[in-house]
User: What shape does this take?
Amino acid sequence: MSSALRIAELPQEADTLEFGRRLGAALRAGDLVLLDGPLGAGKTVLARGIAAGMGVTGRVTSPTFVIARVHRPDSGNGPALVHVDAYRLGGLDEIDDLDLDTDLTEAAVVVEWGEGLAERLADSHLMLRIRRRPDDVREVALEPHGESWDARIPELLGR
Ligand SMILES: Nc1ncnc2c1ncn2[C@@H]1O[C@H](COP(=O)(O)OP(=O)(O)OP(=O)(O)O)[C@@H](O)[C@H]1O
Ligand SMILES: [Mg+2]
Assistant: This one.
C-alpha cells in the first residue's frame, strides 16, 4: 500500500469516534500517536474515540489549563491513556517537564499539536493528519514512522 492511500474518510463525528475506537482498541503501552490538524479539525473527538476503544475512564476534553491528563483503564489491565494538548506548550523544556517518556513505559500517549515536540519521545510513532474538507468531511491521513506502525496500519484501517 502506498502512503498516499492511507487516508480514511470520516463524514460524521460518529465516524471519527469509531475510527478512534478501532485505533484505541489496538493501542499498547509505549505507543505514541500524534494528532495534527487545524482548530476544530476533530483531534479531540478522535482522542475521545481512542479513549473509548482503550476502555479508559474520564472524559476526554480540550483542556484549558491542564496540558496532560491520565485516563486509567476502566477495569483490570490494559494501558492507561495520557492525552496531551501541546497547544500552549512553550517548547522542548516544557514537554520534557511532563515526563512523557516515563509515561510511555506504561501508557499510550496521544498528543494534539505535538508536531516538532513530541516525536522526539519515540522514534516510532503514528502521525495522524486531519483535514476538514469544504464539504465538512474529515480526511485523516495516517503516517507511520517506524516499522511496527507500518505493519499495523492495515488493521487500523479495517482492511
Ligand atoms: N467528521 C467529523 N469528525 C470530527 N468532528 C466533527 C466531524 N464533523 C463535525 N465535527 C465537529 O467538529 C468539531 C471538532 O472539534 P475538536 O475539539 O475535536 O477539534 P480539535 O481539532 O481538537 O480542535 P482544537 O485544535 O481546538 O483542540 C466538533 O465540534 C465536532 O462536533
Ligand atoms: Mg482539541
